[in-house]
Design goal:
It is built from eleven helices and eight strands. The protein is α/β, with parallel strands linked by helices and about 290 residues long. It has a single domain, classed as Alpha-Beta Barrel (TIM Barrel). Helix 8 packs parallel to helix 9. Bound molecules: zinc ion (ZN).
Amino acid sequence: MTPPALDLVEHARANGYAVGAFNVHSPETTQALLLAAERTSTPLFLQVGRAVIPHMGLRAAYEMTVRTAAESDAVHVIHLDHGTEAEVLEALRLGFTSIMYDGAHLPFEENIAATRRLTRIAHDFGAMVEAELGRIPDADEDVDWDAYYTDPGEAERFVAETGVDVLAISAGVVHGVPLTTASPLAIDRIEKIRALVDVPLVLHGASGLTPTEISDAIRAGVHKLNLDTDLRFAFRRGIEETWAAGDRQLETALARGRELMAEATVTKMADFGCLGRAQDVTLVDSSPTRSW
Ligand SMILES: [Zn+2]
């Protein structure tokens, strides 16, 4: 079941919560996310992210996600995370209904021009467009945050000139979980950006944030939260637990990882305030059958 992606985020904005966007890596991790969504009637974004594309290719990742989701009645949107221009164009042809274009490597003016062009194309395909402004570092980077935070004035111009539907911002979180210092989540920066920008905001790298930080971010204007690392830890725990008890079939370990990841996803959905929201969005009839 796939509602228009932007409706999902706008519903979150109108009702004061955030919708979760979680990465797919394999059939089992995709199933884990769908199980969490089904068990709690929660809508979600299934993200084809930076790691899975070199692993299996964009087309195979999309087809795997579509096939797995077809066996579920979870309300979902399939989203491309951090796409290059070529990946965005391929994703639209494949049938993605939500894409993020990452033009962060370009100078600001060129980023605006490229994002505007791709946004027009994506809108012709009926897809939601996300872009990111400011730099979101990796967990192991040394960071001078002033150089990384999204500049509110630039955000205002960027959204007005590109026409993007949602904007990912840098406000203190990183990709991955920082192992040494706590992330300095800048709620005041989010509020400043929201005051100037009329589209919903997105925060990447929500792993490691406390439930309080998450609800503060939502109150400040964030209505899509991307999260991967904490769920990967849960999946890994399932595998390690299984093999710590002696040699087992690979499938036994993967199934345990899937279950622990599903449970961890429900916990995150509760933090995001999105549990049970699928009932509020329009459903398309389907009758899935499956064996997992
Ligand atoms: Zn990201």
